[in-house]
Amino acid sequence: MPPGAKLIETELAERFGTSRGPVREAIRELAREGLVAELPRRGTVVSTLTARDLAEVYAIREGLDLVAGKAVVSRASDAELRRLGEHLVAMDEASRPSGDYGKVAEHDFAFHRELVALAGNGRLSAIYDTMLSQTALLLRAAAAVNPTLRSEMERPVHWALLDSLVGRDHDRVRVAIDGHYRYAEERLFAQFGFAPREGHDAR
Prior knowledge:
Largest sheet: 2 strands, antiparallel
Low-confidence stretches: 197-203
Distance between the termini: 28 Å
Oligomer: single chain
CATH superfamily of the largest domain: GntR ligand-binding domain-like
Helix content: 55-70%
CATH topology of the largest domain: Four Helix Bundle (Hemerythrin (Met), subunit A)
């Protein structure tokens, strides 16, 4: 549903073939994740995330990836890292000409979600899942403004991160994560009329 769309329990219950109770609980969960908002005199609507939201979400994700990456270098097995790479192979397949942008994003998120999960910190994973949900909303908004975002994605940024993890090199992991988020900012922030400042101040 597009940003700003009003959520009416009776209509949603009919649409999904359920009662209002599950719909009400789903809306509460979406509110906890920041995906819907309750507005005075308007009721509950799909959140409209701004450039500042984008900056905050990506700053948090980058920090969590750094924490997770440090832990993964020390504790993840070679087999676990190979499984992590499977998401990138699938992402590359989905990125082929006339590929499915939704699948690309799905495997992108799965890669990051599993990276954080390998850190073995449940609270870290829970926070990260919330940030991914908000990222999905932001990506849809950005792609609506610039459809080329659906096809133009530089895949080596993810492989560089995986290579640094396989190499068990903390410094390379930090540099790879920094490069990943700088690239993401360059692609996405302009769609919201917002340019990151030098030195990552915008994040």
